[in-house]
Amino acid sequence: MATDFLDGLQPLFDCLTDGVCVADADGKLLYANAAAGTLLGPKVAALTQEAICGILCGGLEGHSCDEAANCPLRVPRGPVHAATFKGRFAPTGRDLRVRCMRVRLPSHDRHFLLVEDVTAQAEAGRQKEEWRQMLAHDFRSPLTIALGTLRAVEDMGAGHPLAADDLALVEGGVRNCRRLEALINAYLDTNRLEDGAMPVHSGTVGVEALIRSVVEEHAPAAATGGQLLTYNAPPTLTARADPELLRRALSNILGNALKFTPQGGRISLDASLLENIVLIRVTDNGPGIPARDLPHIFDRYYQGDNGGRRHGLGLGLTFCRAAMRAMGGEIEAESDEGRGAVFTLRLPSAAPGGPS
Predict the structure, then answer these.
(1) Which of 173, 185, 333, 342 has its CA 20 to 30 A from that of 148?
(2) Are 45 and 104 found together in one domain?
(3) Is 4 exposed, middle or buried (0-12, 13-18, 19+ CB in 10 A)?
(4) Where are the alpha helices (DSSP H) in the chain?
C-alpha cells in the first residue's frame, strides 16, 4: 500500500463493516479492506493495480450512476469529484451502493470508495413494488365489477322494473363494493395498529361465544365448499382482548383455512388455557404452507405461493399479527407442507390470577 494518508487509517478501515477501497489518480486499485473482500469477492485484494472502474462496473448489473458521463472513476482527472452508483454485483449476488470521491493531496490524487451492502433494502423495495401492483390489481377487480353493475343499471333507464337477473346483478355489485371496502379497511387499520394510532378496547371476552359466532359466520361458505367445520372451547374460558379485533383476526385466519382447504377437508377451532395464557388454534388439513414461505407469511409485503399461484394482498395475516400484538398477544403458524397448517393465537387470560 502506498505510504500516504492511508498508513494511519488502515486499522480503522479494517474494522469497518462497509467496504473501503482506495485507488490512485488513474483509478487503479491500491487497497481494499476485509469488508470489501466480502462484498466484492475475496479475490479483490489481489486485483491491485487494476482499474477499479472495471472491477465494479464490470460486475454491476443494471447499475445507475448519478454522474455516469463524468464519473471520477471513468474520467479520473475530469471535472466531477464525487459520484454514487448502485446495482446488483453479479460475482457475489449482492445489491451494492458505491460512493466514490476523489481526494486531492499535495502531490497526487486518491479515489476513496465506500461500498455498502443494500441487499435487504433492495429486496424490500422489490417486494414493496410487487405488493403495490397486487394492491392495485385487487382493488381494481371488485371496482370493475361494481362499475359494470352501475353501468348496466344505468342502461336500463328510468322506470325499468328489476327482474331476478337484474337483482342478482345489483347484489353482485354490492358484494364487490363491500369487498373493496374490506380491503381498504384492512390496509388502513393495519397501518394504524402498527403505528399505535388505533384505539384498542381490551376487556373480558368470552372465548367460546366469540368462536361460535365466527364459526356461524363462515358456516355457509364451509357448506358450499363441502368442508367440515367444527369448534371446541370451554364455556367459562375468558381472555383479555378487544372483542372486535379478536373477531376480525380469527375470521381472517378461518377465511384463509376455508379458502385453501379442498372439498371434503376439515377445519377445527379449539381453545384452551395454558399457564394463564389462552390458546386459540385453527387447524386444517389443506395443502399447508411451503417451508420457504412459513417464516414470512406475516410480513406486510410478502406474497406466498400456493399451488404455483400468487394470492391475496398480503394484508390479512399482517393485520392479524398487528391486532394480536396491540392486544398484548401473539400469533404463530406451523405447517407440514401437504398435510395442513395450524395457526395459534395467544392472549392473556382474564380469569383471576391471569396477567393484568
Answers:
(1) 185
(2) yes
(3) middle
(4) 6-15, 34-40, 52-57, 119-156, 164-194, 207-224, 243-260, 316-326
Stretch (H or E) spanning 309: strand 309-310
Total number of domains in the chain: 3
Cell of 278: 389462552
Same domain, 218 and 344: yes
Residues 99 and 85 in one domain: yes
**DSSP 3-state of 206:** strand
- Weakest mean pLDDT among 215-229, 274-288, 311-325: 311-325
Give the pLDDT confidence score for residue 180 in this predicted structure: 82
Q: Which of 280, 251, 298 is nearest to 347 (CA)?
A: 280
Strand partners, 232: 270
- 306 and 239, same structural domain? yes
Cβ(306)–Cβ(269) below 8 Å: no
Please give the model's pTM, rounded to 2 decimal places. Answer: 0.60
Same-domain check for residues 93 and 113:
yes
Structural domain includes residue 1: no
Q: Which domain holds residue 307?
A: 203-348
Q: What is the pLDDT of residues 43-55, one digit of tens each?
A: 776 777 778 777 7
What distance in Å separates the CA atoms of residue 253 and residue 344, rounded to the nearest whole number?
10
In a domain, 353, yes or no: no
Q: Which of 13-27, 204-218, 308-322 has the highest mean pLDDT?
A: 204-218
pLDDT digits (tens, 9 = 90+) for 237-249: 999 999 999 999 9
Q: Residue 184's Cα: distance from chain center in Å?
A: 17
Strand partners, 273: 278
CATH number at residue 312: 3.30.565.10
- Please report, for the domain that includes residue 128, its CATH number: 1.10.287
In Å, how far are 87, 96, 178, 211, 326 from 192, measured between CA atoms?
34, 33, 21, 25, 10
- 33 and 169, same domain (yes or no): no
**Which cell goes with 201?**
378496547
